[in-house]
């Protein structure tokens, strides 16, 4: 209760909660499409690959402006997605190897750049290290503005192209036979997922961002068979986990934001896997018992 | 030994130890499990430390290896419920375990050697300072751990080579012959886990993945034989390790990061230039096939009209482009190549098939 009153009164807490909610909604919505299109792990590769993008953006411009850094991150993540698709499309390397390869090599390159930056006198203040595990407490108003500027157009895009994205996720062949530009639409959808990742980097960090794409969608999937409800649920789950995780992390010592948000989200997901009607494990167990009963 | 030599030796041994199980991960399409395992072994280490309060305790090692195997079991458990697919299950399980580990570190172990940076980066440069005595020899601990891991991997792969090979390439047959696939699978996962823990100190959690996946993926583009792939992976891994060390030395950057970057560069080189399978070889092959096909078309065309009334019209070099619908420059080049290859001869205004050209056309028409 004390936390709730503080939430409305305290500037820092309000900023943190707003940022985390924004992150939760955007990644929840776009994560649904990523999971349905079996690209859950592509998000992991893309978010790790964002690290060299952040470092390069800082090296080239010397600015700490969140817009510059996040655009750098997005560009690198986008290139990584392209790399994964290119490698699997033109060689006999399978998707799992291409993902693991891109993820680790890009991250390694990012670490090289970070260690190069350590030597610059202005680097210590740049605080690029907070992008590893996220630091919601460091969010300021300017960060929220940038996050909204990236996130709201992405959500708008999903709303406008709802039917197209829905068909693309469930039956891409049919979509192509209707004459939809499936190639362009997939690229657009991947770009939107990249934007969701970029939004999460400051508060959750590159290492754990992929969980924020996968977990809300996986949790929401258990409650419904309708995409529209799934997307709304995933957005709310994401926001709930984001806000609670960010608040715990901002008010308690020793809780990095990324891991805390991920654990909050994991609790929601576990609850959904167990309790969701029809699909949940408890539900199934009870139904199994009931079906057994008359036999005795 | 000088510290620089020791660091390079450790790097090479760790890279070789990682490449061996990596080959099977790549072939069995389980490369992303290395991502999961290398993250979650941290939780095992932290739990072991919180129990024993001793970073040197062997319980840490055991706990970490066990946690890697538990991760794989958890992923399979979640997939087995049928509620989420395997890729999503991996994406759900390991971030949770890793998050718990990071929070435990910063809450309860923040003031010891275990800190989050070294978890991601490793401390290869400081490895020579942590020494143990064995059989009267004064060795860096990381060197000893790496050596034991490498030997264990070599021994396991040597002993179960046939089983691993069969289970990798034909799981159905392996099961039918009575090699328990689950046993092979979990054996391999234990090996990956042990290797990840052994390499963890030296190169950190995420770069373990690079060393496990990049060299085998590069080797996969170079050969079709398992034994050769194992050997090439070790060589590529070792070469990236040495090159990475020197790159890091010259630029004064993170050694582990440079090693991972260069293993990626090694893969990139194979991807572009591998004989037969690389992008360049593929492009060259397609270009060659284009000319070969055009020459076949030319030979077929000449064979069709050979000795007929319209031969003068159809078989003159200047009219070819109209009849075969080739751009004139392309047609001229095809004729030039065909003449050079002894497929056709020019007789005044007429192209004639040679014996070789006729045989080629007949073969092509039979196809």
Describe the protein's architecture and organization.
The complex is a heterodimer of chains A (296) and B (367). Chain A has one domain (2-295): ABC transporter involved in vitamin B12 uptake, BtuC. Chain A is 80% helix and 0% strand. Chain A has 15 helices and no strands. In chain A, helix 4 crosses helix 11 (182-201) and helix 11 (182-201) crosses helix 12 (209-221). The model of chain A has no long low-confidence stretch (mean pLDDT 87). Chain B is elongated and about 100 Å long. In chain B, the strands form two sheets. In chain B, strands 1-2 form a two-stranded antiparallel ribbon. Helices cover 77% and strands 4% of the residues of chain B. Chain B is mainly α and 367 residues long. Chains A and B meet through helix 3, helix 5, helix 12 and helix 14 of A and helix 2, helix 4, helix 5, helix 10 and helix 12 of B.
Largest interface: A-B, 63 and 61 residues
Give the radius of gyration of chain B. 29 Å
Q: Report the biggest beta sheet of chain A as strand number plus sense, adding barrel if it closes.
A: none
Strand content of chain A: under 5%
Category by helix and strand content of chain A:
mainly alpha
User: Tell me about the biggest sheet of chain B?
Assistant: 2 strands, antiparallel
**What is the average of the pLDDT values of chain B?**
86
Q: CATH architecture of chain A, please?
A: Orthogonal Bundle
The structural domain count of chain B equals 2
What fraction, in percent, of the residue positions of chain A are helical?
over 70%
What is the number of domains of chain A?
A: 1
Query: Average pLDDT of chain A, to the nearest integer?
Result: 87
Q: In one word, what is the shape of chain B? A: elongated
CATH topology of chain A: ABC transporter involved in vitamin B12 uptake, BtuC
The number of helices of chain A is 15
Order of helices and strands of chain B, N to C? HHHHHEEHHHHHHHHHHHEEH
N- to C-terminal distance of chain A: 51 Å
CATH architecture of the largest domain in chain B: Orthogonal Bundle
